[in-house]
Amino acid sequence: MCWLQWAWCSLSKFRALMNYKSLISLVLAAWLCLAGMAHAEKADRNKPMNIEADSLRYDDLKQISIFTGRVVLTKGTIVIRGDRLEVRQDPDGFQFGVATGAPDKPAFYRQKREALDEFIEGEGETITYDGKADTVTFTRRAQLRRLRGSTLADEITGGTIVYENLTDLFTVDGATNKGPTGALGSAGRVRVMLTPKAEPTVGAPAAADAARLKPSPALGGVPQ
């Protein structure tokens, strides 16, 4: 009997876990459907990287540049801000960056979406930019938002968020979130807010056509 009870409890926990993961997958899939097929601005990948900071230290042995103090990185439409930024470039020319926020202000990321007046922006204690894989990872107290113009459309919070620029794919994990319970992005939880896309106004074309139609006293050109 004890063995059967253990097996049933294990099966119940497994089903609960699978249902939770399935729910998260469905929510993210819904967000992607709402977002459409547009991707991040592809031209950003080949744009030069410009950085401003209060100080710079270059490690020639490790080929790493370390910027500190009010750091601002721009690369096309990409903007990254933080208190500290490490940047390196591999032999193939791909660039990598790790931005760290201040204790009272997380690191920030923003990028325009391809051919749309929409932006992806997010925050995290640490933001990692991988130029080769074209991904951005937000770690600890992570937030990711989609804005239509200046209006907030969708928002995700969690422990770790990975955003793939080329495919517009998001992966969210709440387990590594260490925020205080009850605060934004509470520990162990993923939170999603989705806004339906505004539908075009119906009836306007029909009204315009009706205004152009004129009653005719004849049918087929023959007076009635």
Write a brief structural summary:
By secondary structure, this protein is of the alpha+beta class. It is built from two helices and 14 strands; from the N terminus they run αββββββββββββαββ. The longest helix is centred in the first third of the chain and has 34 residues, at about 1-35.
Please explain how this structure is put together.
- The chain is α+β, with helices and mostly antiparallel strands and 224 residues long.
- It has one domain (14-193): Sandwich (lipopolysaccharide transport protein A fold), CATH 2.60.450.
- The protein is built from two helices and 14 strands.
- A hairpin with a 2-residue loop joins β13 and β14 (222-223).
- The longest helix has 34 residues, at 2-35.
- Mean pLDDT is 74; it is low at 1-8, 10-27, 29-38, 179-186 and 206-224.
